[in-house]
Amino acid sequence: MPVFLRYLVFQLPSWMLAAVVLGALAWFDTLPGWVAGALVAALVVKDLLLFPRLRRAYGPGPTDGAAAMCGALVEADTPLRPAGYVRFGAERWRARLKDSKGCVEAGETLRVCEVDRLTLLVEPCPPAVVPTGEKAGA
User: Fold this and answer.
1) Would you call 114 helix, strand, or coil by DSSP?
2) Helix axes 3-27, 33-58, angle to 10 degrees
3) 38 pairs with which residues across the strands?
4) What pLDDT score was predicted for residue 124?
5) Which helix (H) or strand (E) holds 6?
6) Would you kindly state where each structural domain of the chain is located, as residue ranges?
């Protein structure tokens, strides 16, 4: 489904609810009919004007969170010999070195290669690859 159509389908219930409530207020002479119509139109125009800002939220993204994690930089929270824990942002994840014979000390920067259920498979990241001033997992 195209992104704009998905956005319209999501907005439609609120437009209909506003139209019913404002229509009822106009029906019982609580609100002039032209004001009710203008308010519903203003709501629709507001949502259409916000679409360019919200477009990315309604677009297709990774099919799962694991796909988004692959390639990310993380920091070893504990020594990995070959398993231990890493920091991914504010979260602590169980991790295992892709090369089972390797060893990594706490504080080193690693790259996520793949995700196996709730365990990250990681490999050491050369210092030249880590952007200066940027903390891993941020």
Assistant:
1) strand
2) 160
3) none
4) 92
5) helix 3-27
6) 3-58, 65-124
Tell me the fold of 65-124: OB fold (Dihydrolipoamide Acetyltransferase, E2P) (2.40.50)
Beta carbons within 10 angstroms of residue 61's beta carbon? 11
Number of Cα atoms under 13 Å in the Cβ half of residue 60: 3
Q: Which residue shows structure tokens 């004007």?
A: 49
Q: Which residues, at least 6 apart from 62, have a Cβ–Cβ distance to it below 8 Å?
A: 68
Q: Give the mean pLDDT of the chain.
A: 88
- Residue 41 to residue 96: CA distance in whole angstroms: 56
Structure confidence by residue, pLDDT tens digits, 102-136: 899 999 999 999 998 889 999 998 776 666 555 55
Question: How many helices, marked H, and strands, marked E, lie in the chain?
Answer: 3, 5
Q: What is the tens place of the pLDDT at every residue in 41-97?
A: 999 999 999 999 988 888 776 667 777 788 999 999 999 999 999 998 889 999 999
User: What are the φ/ψ torsions at residue 117 (nearest 5 degrees)?
Assistant: 60, -110
Tell me if 120 sits within 8 A of 94, measured CB to CB. yes
